[in-house]
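Appendix C: a fully annotated inverse folding record. The material below is reproduced so that readers can follow the format used throughout the book. The structure is listed first as tokens, followed by the designed sequence.
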């Protein structure tokens, strides 16, 4: 049923799993003996984060933030609201934000700056998808699985109006779905 709204599959489930395994191996090396805090940005990061951590063979801690900037539309509003903050002090800790997509970059730039103010030892970003054409601020991920074109995508955690998160792949949403 959901597939009828998808114009094209951009990244398959198999490609996502392989990329998460490769990134997990890299993070294992980079964070060996550091006990980092991986902060998932809710809600979209959940499927990617769940897949990614299965491939990490070193101690990590998990936490989550719920941050809103889309407010039901198809483009970031630029207004960042922290709805749920992390539950621990990150001073002196290595932090890795796990994100589903970097589009405008505003959310992660604000979060990175906030965590630097909170005196994190390091603040890095891992993202499933990077959409550089959508960028309105200067920010790059430290770890990127896929760079995608400037299309409106859903699936594997990404949504349109809270729908399509459960697709097992990332696909381009047909324009008629969100321009009705």
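Designed amino acids, in order:
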């Amino acid at each position: 049923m959901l597939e009828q709204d998808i114009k094209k599959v951009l990244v398959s489930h198999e490609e996502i799993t392989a990329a998460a395994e490769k990134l997990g191996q890299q993070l294992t090396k980079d964070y060996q003996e550091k006990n980092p805090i991986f902060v998932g940005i809710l809600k979209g990061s959940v499927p990617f984060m769940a897949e990614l951590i299965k491939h990490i063979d070193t101690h990590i801690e998990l936490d989550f933030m719920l941050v809103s900037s889309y407010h039901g539309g198809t483009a970031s509003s630029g207004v960042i609201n922290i709805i749920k903050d992390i539950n621990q002090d990150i001073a002196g800790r290595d932090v890795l934000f796990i994100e589903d997509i970097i589009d405008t970059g505003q959310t992660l730039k604000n979060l990175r700056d906030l965590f630097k103010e909170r005196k994190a030892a390091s603040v890095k970003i891992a993202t499933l998808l990077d959409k550089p054409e959508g960028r309105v601020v200067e920010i790059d991920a430290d770890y990127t699985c896929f760079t995608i074109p400037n299309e409106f995508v859903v699936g594997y955690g990404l949504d349109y109006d809270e729908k399509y998160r459960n697709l097992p792949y990332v696909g381009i949403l047909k324009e008629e779905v969100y321009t009705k």
